[in-house]
Amino acid sequence: MSWPSEAIDDLVGLLNSIESSLAWPQQAILDKIVFLTKPNGDDRSIGLGTFLFRLWQKIRAPVTRSWEEVWTQDWDSAKKGSSAIKAALRRAVVSEVAVLKGQLSAAVLWDLTSFFDTILPQVLIQHALELGYPARHLYLSLQVHLAPRVLVT
């Protein structure tokens, strides 16, 4: 699908206005929450962001990627290209090898189902800015993250 150049110009103008004012239009920050059924029958909720916010994220992705490249470490199992299963399998292999070598092995398991709900926004903001995360990007992203959500059934 191609858009008329006037529509693209208007969209660029809107995104520039959002960035300069540090404020999203109210209809652009309302996430729709839908439930997806997992293979085991449980539900998993996901947020469906608005087109405008998703477009802005895609355009500004290089900002996030360049910051991640600076701060991501080799040991970080949450980095790009990693997966939870790979991290779990690696830990299991390391544990098994330790036992085979006559060493002790222990694991602490922590259910992080609601982990992100425990992070206070002011603490996140403080640490993100201390680590050089771009303030404008952080502010605009948190407006959407902290906005009301609507459950779609």
Shape: elongated
Structural class: mainly alpha
Biggest β-sheet description: 3 strands, mixed
User: What oligomeric state is this?
Assistant: single chain
How much helicity do the residues have?
A: 40-55%
Q: Strand-and-helix sequence, N→C?
A: HEEHHHHE
Rg calculated over all Cα atoms = 20 Å
Mean pLDDT: 88
Low-confidence stretches: none
Strand order of the largest sheet: 2-1-3
- Per DSSP E runs of 2 or more residues, the count of β-strands stands at 3
Beta fraction: 5-15%
Distance between the termini: 29 Å
By DSSP (H or I, 4+ residues per run), the number of helices equals: 5
Sum up the structure in keywords.
153 residues; 3-stranded mixed sheet
In short:
By secondary structure, this protein is mainly alpha-helical. It contains five helices and three strands.
Description:
The chain has 153 residues and is mainly alpha-helical. The protein has helices at residues 5-21, 51-71, 84-100, 121-130, 135-145; strands at residues 31-37, 43-48, 149-151. Strands 2-1-3 form a three-stranded mixed beta sheet, with no helix packed on it. Helix 4 (121-130) packs antiparallel against helix 5 (135-145). The longest helix is centred in the middle third of the chain and has 21 residues, at 51-71. The chain is elongated and about 70 Å long.
